[in-house]
Amino acid sequence: MSELQHQLDVETTVTAEPFAELMKFAVNTCLRDPDGYYRKLENLREEAAQSEQAKIASRIGLWPLREAVEISLNTAFRDESKLADISAPETLFMKVDPEIQLKIEAFGQAILDEAFLCLGQEAPNKVAEWLAAETTDEKKEILNWMLGVVYEIINIPMDENGHEIRDDSDDEDEEITEDGQEPDDPILYYHPVRLSPKFIGEYPQTDVEPACLGVSILAASFYQKLGVPYLHAGVVRTAPDEARTCSYLISEITKEYIADHGIELHARLEDLLAGLAKDTQEVLRSERGFHAAVLGQLDDEQWVQIDPHYKRNARLYEETSAELTTIHDTLSDLGNVIRGTEILWQNRNTLALNYFWNFAEELAAKPPRDDAEIESYLLNASPDTKVEDFVKEFLGDFLEGSEIESYTELRQVLTNLCDQTYETDYKFWVEEYILGQTVRSRVFPDAKYSDLSHSLARCKTDERYLKNRVEDLKLIPFYALLSLQLDTGNQVIRKAFNKAHSTFELGMPAYKIGASVLSHLAVWCGDELPPSFWLTYWPSQVSFADHANSGEAKSDAQRQLAYQTAQNIDRGLWTYLNISGIVDFVLDQGGAPTHGENQTGQARRAHGEGRDSPD
Predict the structure, then answer these.
(1) 16-30 and 98-118 helices cross at what angle (nearest 10)?
(2) Phi and psi dihedrals of 599, rounded to 5?
(3) Residue from 599, 532, 519, 22 nearest 234 by CA
(4) If phi over 0 gives left and psi between -120 and 50 gives alpha, with beta otherwise, what is residue 279?
(5) Closest CA to 554 of 603, 605, 589, 588
(6) 532 close to 323: Cβ distance less than 8 angstroms
(7) Are 465 and 457 spatial neighbours (Cβ–Cβ below 8 Å)?
(8) pLDDT of amino acid 436
(9) Which tens digits make up the pLDDT trace of 148-160?
(10) Where are the alpha helices (DSSP H) in 227-288?
(11) Which residues contact 355 (CB under 8 A, 6 or more apart)?
């Protein structure tokens, strides 16, 4: 055994006393009946039987197991280019004590039991109704009942049909903030009691409004009683994040195309692209806390996302639901070997938003049309040419997909995003909505709806006007794509297309919830446990952010373990937006001593101190 490994083992093993103190504090803070935790623990001890497989896994640790499972399920989308560049001086194994794992899971189970009581006296009857339900629609009604109760607990007004009551008078200027609140909502300051079922109370007499992790626990508690497969989820990327990121990437690709081909950038397009970049970066770089949701089975073929705090409760498609069933079964089976494994997973239906910037990259690979060709067309076009004729004549090859191979995928992308089938009206959608509106608004802004006679006549007499039209027509595919993406993305952001989030960290609920709440309490109250404890027992990017870089006086072993975990995260293509900077910092340090601000304070701010969005 190396000196570093010995040091790590010692530092992780001597955590028994501070962990016992943290657990005692958590049990007394969160539970009305602390004895419920101890009963759960005894039950788990009686059921636990460590196999040879479990012994091997416990010696290796949860992070290596997580990486192996992600690769086997093809969920993490590993960046192969980074594998050759990463070489840790030494791989440290994080040996797991099964007794500590049992305590974490028992605490999570006890939290779920008590959170169910917060839903009120009618909740057991609704569980019985679910068990007796014969149709999916009946089960939807029962889930809507649960959501209605949760909405009332978190003070979101609902009408008699279970829909949120909103003032849409200023809808055009309205923007949903990342923590799910409207900008003029009162700020709710975060405190750990907002995770505590004991302090939340029992509906309808609730006393404390839960934070988003607390809200996800309420939803999870109902699913726990239903006895159907479900998972607890850390939200890595939201659906609005995907939409905004896509807008930004298309704008950047468009700017590169303009620069590469010497196209004259008009002021209105320059303003549009600059505004997109500024607005998107401001939102995506804004300080935000971690967020939690629940993914649960509705019937044998369909899962749903339950996210009352963010007001995004959405169905998942059959193919996606089948993936979740496989993931749930795999994680459940692993729980019998080594508890606490998590994986990264991406919802491909929401990721259809990425299609637009993939399409933009394909557009950028094609050179623009020749100036002389465009001028000749404009100067010789019939004065009777209508917009729809212009689209078919000038952009016919674009419409038929002969230039862009993936253009034919647009129908399926729109179906996935918009929950509609684009079969009979596909031509109208493309010719009239995407390209027709773009031609009228961007290329010929002086056209009178479909009449181009004035614009075409002006091309013959106004050289500057003709030049501008030529430059615009070089960019017409980008104009059209950006218009479509912005329209579709805004519908996602405003929930007209109610898409589930795109990327998650998934784990079995009881253990993940137990670890999450314990981590919150530790961060808030001053963590006495070493980073190796959290990285050993909670293989989450969140635990890395909260604890892996938590002070200046860490040992060489702790620094090396943080470096090793940062490498693991960096090999994936996706991280939480507020974690990538910490990963880069740890990798830059290379396991060396840290300097500067204590990261516990940074972690608290990453959780959104003074904001309502902790995980």
Answers:
(1) 10
(2) -75, -10
(3) 519
(4) alpha
(5) 589
(6) no
(7) no
(8) 79
(9) 999 999 986 555 5
(10) 239-260, 267-284
(11) 406, 409, 410, 413
pLDDT digits (tens, 9 = 90+) for 84-132: 555 555 678 888 888 999 999 999 999 999 999 999 999 999 999 999 9
Q: Coil, strand or helix: which one is 199?
A: helix
Q: From the CB of residue 478, how many other CB atoms can be counted at a distance below 10 Å? A: 25
Residues 332-342 have a mean pLDDT of 86
Residue pLDDT, tens place only, 511-532: 999 999 999 999 888 888 999 9
β partners of residue 572: 78
Paired tokens of 17:
């006393």
Where is pLDDT greater, at 357 or 240? 240
| DSSP 8-state class, residue 553 | S
- Alpha carbon distance 140, 70 (integer Å): 31
Residue whose entry in the numeric block shows the structure tokens 């003032």: 167
- Contact by Cβ (8 Å): 501, 235: yes
205 φ, ψ to 5°? -95, 70
- Burial string for 508-543 (b: 16+ CB within 10 Å, else e) reads bbbbbbbbbbbbbbbbbeebebbbbbbbbbbbbbbb
Nearest to 541 by CA among 579, 584, 586, 577: 579
Three-state secondary structure call for residue 98: helix
Q: Say how many CA atoms lie within 13 Å of 108 toward its Cβ.
A: 28
Element (H, E) at 506: strand 503-507
Residue with tokens 């009691």: 193
CA 295 to chain centre: 13
Helical residues (DSSP H) of 494-579, grouped into ranges: 509-525, 531-537, 541-547, 556-570
Tell me the CA end-to-end span of the chain in Å, nearest whole number: 37
User: Residue 37 and residue 114: Cα distance in Å, rounded?
Assistant: 10
Contact 340, 515 (CB under 8 A): yes
The residue count for the chain: 615
Rounded CA-CA distance 516/507 in Å is: 11
The angle subtended at Cα 610 by Cα 277 and Cα 346, nearest 5°, is 50
Q: From the centroid of its chain, how far is CA 392?
A: 39
Indicate left, alpha or beta for 66 from its phi (over 0: left) and psi (-120 to 50: alpha).
Answer: alpha
- Contact between 306 and 148 under an 8 Å Cβ cutoff? The reply is no
Backbone angles phi, psi at 577, to 5 degrees: -60, -30
Who wins on pLDDT, 2 or 87?
2
CA 571, CA 567: separation in Å to the nearest integer? 6
**Residue 400 above 90 pLDDT?**
no
- The residue with greater pLDDT, 260 or 264, is 260
Q: Please check the confidence at residue 173 and state whether its pLDDT lies above 50.
A: no
- DSSP-based three-state secondary structure for 325: helix
Per-residue b/e over 194-211, b at no fewer than 16 CB within 10 Å? bbbbbbbbbbeebebebb
Say if residue 260 is exposed, middle or buried (CB neighbours under 10 Å; 0-12, 13-18, 19+).
exposed
Indicate the pairing of strand 230-237 with strand 503-507: antiparallel
Inter-residue contact 34 to 28 (CB < 8 Å): yes
CB 542 within 8 A of CB 290: yes
pLDDT of 182 > 50? The answer is: no
Query: Crossing angle, helix 136-153 and helix 212-226, to 10 degrees?
Result: 150
Q: Measured between alpha carbons, how far is 160 from 297 in angstroms, rounded to an integer? A: 25
Helix (H/G/I), strand (E/B), else coil: 606: helix
